[in-house]
Amino acid sequence: MPYVPEPWSFDDVLKLTKISPAYWRATYNAPPLNLFTPRTYKALRTLVELLENDQAVKVVVFDSSVPDYFMAHYDLLAREGKENAEGEDAAPETEWPGFVLRFARLSAVTIAEVRGRARGLGSEFVLACDIRYASLEKAVFCQPEVGAGLVPGGGGIEWLSKLVGRSRALEILLGSQDFDAATAAQYGYINRAIKDSELSAFVDNFARRVAGFDKKPLLETKQVVNDRAGLPSLSDLTGALNIFAKSCNWPETTKRVQTLLGMGLQQDGPVERDLGQHVHEVSLKLYGKTEDAQ
């Protein structure tokens, strides 16, 4: 008797579908932007616990139900205590370094299927996945923190330095620009950029292929690659997160973030859709010309 896909949800912000015992899909579902909140983290943490305790699962694909956003970025208003009570017991701002290493060491293979924008922590989550495939026409990647007066704190510095090399990492991080999928693939930010009409089928075929292999060689191979290639260290990730937390309180950062919020950040509109351009425009608004920024 064929296996019947089992859709179920421990929280609507992250919907889980068990395509088979060995192959799961996790779908970010927090329209309109898929902002990452403490509630999102709580759901993701629950999923990781399920993955750690299920010996049958071999591969999990992460995608989005929101066409234009895989994950916009971290919810900046959550830092101001405006997150609902459901997320109060989840603390991504302190737990993330240890959690993301736990995620990277899962026995299951993690794959990001990216359509739409993946910026900030959205980009950093994608980077933490084992494999990244993206829509050639619709995927956008960005680490906008420096342009907003912040220091990236969710692993972007550490992952990008390993994946794309020093100079390209600096270009991505310091420029705070949007990268299309073709350029991201050329740089090594993602594995491949695939035509949007072919992306889902490609990822599904690859996931089913992996799910059909034996668990032990999958696990052992992943562990050896992690050891050889090297995961970011807990101390490096923690240090970057601490610097990010400090940067949130810099007066210049407050000005930039408030300006962006006033322009429409965290609303589905021109600023979020073209954030890589608008973080540059903040400098013009605040200082008249970019070289006057302190």
TrEMBL record:
Protein name in the entry: Enoyl-CoA hydratase
PANTHER family (alphabetical): EG:BACN32G11.4 PROTEIN (PTHR43459:SF1), ENOYL-COA HYDRATASE (PTHR43459)
CDD domains: crotonase-like
Gene3D superfamilies found in the cross-reference section: 2-enoyl-CoA Hydratase, Chain A, domain 1
A Pfam family this chain is assigned to: ECH_1
InterPro entries: ClpP/crotonase-like_dom_sf (IPR029045), Enoyl-CoA_hydra/iso (IPR001753)
Lineage top rank: taxon: Eukaryota
